[in-house]
Write a structure and sequence with these properties.
globular, mainly alpha, 33 helices, 543 residues, 3-stranded antiparallel β-sheet
């Protein structure tokens, strides 16, 4: 069963690309940050073009006209924010304008195989957009041949390139578009560049895989292997350790093999203790001393280790701090490193989670390690509520476990299930939409999110929720009153609702506050959409 839903569903009416209030636009980034940026008010023709671009009933001949330079204002809506007919996808992928190709390269509704056709695009910014992918927490992987091409590409010597091959690779590595199967295949891939990059996974490799890479016949691969092997050499780590506090120091102390001398010095200086407590290579005697540290956050990190002595774990299970006791109790032996990280992930989420920081957790180690399906199933029925959250982050749970977690009294469990599992009931997906604003762009792409039966949300305090309800085609009556809602987002969604009489929709096209939504309304016939493009100065005619 796939953890990614099919690319389907109605357009999202630009709800989450930006919100225009007449003078400023609020832009939401991939990580949920918002910035207010001064923007000129769009003209009436620009509103028509953006509305027509979002119109789900617009035929191909209308959409193809929008690829003209005169319709530039609608390119993001058309090429990045909606599903497209095959002929429009073909035209966008071969469009002479970089902006069009970059937009379609990030379109979540366009199949990765189609977007992958841009892997040889002459413009580095287009290839970077493909490598970056859709700005969502959950995306489909690119095909193996596309990944191979991006990861083995050389710098482009054509003039005017703004990014090099390594910068594009970095975009890909953070995009979530590389599946575990591909990373596992890199270790013995025929292309030496991929084997060299696989050495960066050193801490996740087996001893046999490490030995094979160290003995690789390609000198660049063996060189990369020797360089990465330093992470398990305490003397090398000590030599590389910066004295000043910085990201590099924290990285070394948290992940790399650590010498007794370095650990003792950190203890003596009462410095970097959290990193020592989390480092799987910290000497056992140092771990025992950290388990008695007066700081409960340090003891909590010790309680989360996979290699604890059973007696030490028993002591921590009786700790004076409740969080320490809980972390020691929820995970009995035997523990694996990946199980520990899975639990830590949801513990961290719960500790700093707000509606605007909530993320799709997903299975830990999913980039490389084979999933421990049986362990997640055990978590789903555990008497420990915390482990229910861990189970809800796993996209391959059985239907029985999904039904159980969907009724869990913990809202965080239900929200995680809604975000991560393709069988999550529609009711909890809608609840997650209401409760977790950061994930609304992703939830809007799911067919599981209800688009009807939303009348009870028409007066919700959150305008984004009212906008979802205003677009409901199954309302008992047209949402006419919401055409005067104080929020432009709600007005736009109401104007796009096909329950409105076509005569009313036509009258709204000349109202700057409602024109974009009206132009997106599927009750408008194709001939009327063409006329709007004519009035907007877009060349071409109906075929």
């Amino acid at each position: 069963m796939s953890a990614i839903e099919p690319r389907s569903g109605p357009p999202i009416h630009r709800i989450f690309r930006g919100k225009f209030d007449g003078s400023r636009i609020r832009l939401t980034t991939r990580r949920g940050r918002c910035d207010d940026v001064p923007m000129p008010a769009p003209s009436l023709p620009e509103l028509w073009l953006c509305g027509v671009a979002a119109n789900p009933a617009a035929p191909s001949d209308v959409l193809l006209r929008l690829l003209a330079p005169q319709a530039r204002a609608a390119w993001t809506v058309l090429c990045q924010e909606r599903s497209l007919p095959a002929d429009v996808v073909d035209a966008a992928l071969s469009h002479p304008e970089r902006a069009v190709r970059r937009a379609v390269a990030r379109n979540r509704y366009v199949a990765p195989e189609q977007r992958g056709r841009l892997v040889d695009d002459p413009d580095a910014l287009v290839r970077a957009a493909l490598a970056s992918g859709p700005h969502l927490d959950v995306v489909e992987p690119l095909p193996d041949d596309v990944l191979e091409a991006l990861l083995t590409a050389r710098d482009d010597d054509r003039p005017g390139q703004l990014l090099n091959a390594n910068e594009i690779r970095q975009e890909l590595e953070f995009s979530r578009q590389i599946p575990a199967s591909f990373q596992q295949g890199m270790i013995d891939h025929p292309h030496p560049d991929l084997r060299a990059q696989a050495t960066g996974l050193w801490l996740s490799l087996t001893p046999a895989q490490r030995e094979a890479l160290l003995a690789d016949p390609d000198p660049e691969v063996s060189k990369a292997a020797r360089r990465n092997a330093r992470v398990l050499d305490p003397a090398a780590m000590e030599a590389d350790l910066p004295e000043e506090d910085c990201h590099g120091r924290a990285l070394l102390l948290r992940n790399y093999a650590i010498s007794q001398a370095v650990a003792e010095r950190c203890l003596a200086e009462q410095r970097d203790l959290l990193s020592l407590a989390a480092n799987p290579y910290t000497p056992a005697d140092i771990v025992a001393r950290l388990a008695r540290d007066p700081d409960p956050t340090v003891r909590r990190r010790v309680a989360a280790r996979a290699d604890l002595d059973p007696g030490l774990l028993a002591d921590l299970a009786e700790d004076a701090d409740e969080a320490v006791r809980t972390r020691a109790r929820v995970q009995p032996f035997p523990r694996t490193r990946w199980q520990c990280v899975a639990i830590d992930q949801v513990v961290g989420l719960a500790s700093k989670c707000t509606a605007h920081t909530f993320c799709c957790v997903g299975p830990v180690g999913g980039m490389f390690r084979e999933q421990e399906a049986g362990w997640y199933e055990e978590c789903a029925v555990s008497p420990e509520p915390l482990l229910h959250r861990v189970a809800a982050s796993y996209a391959w749970l059985s239907g029985e476990s999904v039904r159980s977690l969907a009724a869990d009294p913990d809202p965080l469990v239900r929200h995680l299930l809604a975000l991560n599992h393709p069988l999550a009931p529609s009711a909890i997906v809608l609840d997650a939409f209401v409760a977790v604003p950061r994930q609304r762009p992703y939830l809007l792409t799911l067919s599981r999110l209800p688009r009807t039966g939303l009348g009870h949300l028409l007066d919700h305090a959150d305008p984004e929720v009212r906008a979802l309800a205003a677009a409901d085609r199954g309302l008992a009556e047209p949402p006419v009153r919401l055409l005067s809602d104080p929020d432009p987002l709600v007005r736009r969604a109401a104007a796009a609702n096909p329950l409105l009489p076509v005569e009313l929709v036509s009258s709204l096209l000349d109202d700057p506050e409602l024109a974009e939504g009206a132009a997106a309304n599927p009750v408008l016939p194709a001939e009327r959409l063409h006329r709007l493009l004519d009035r907007g100065g877009v060349p071409g005619t109906a075929t």
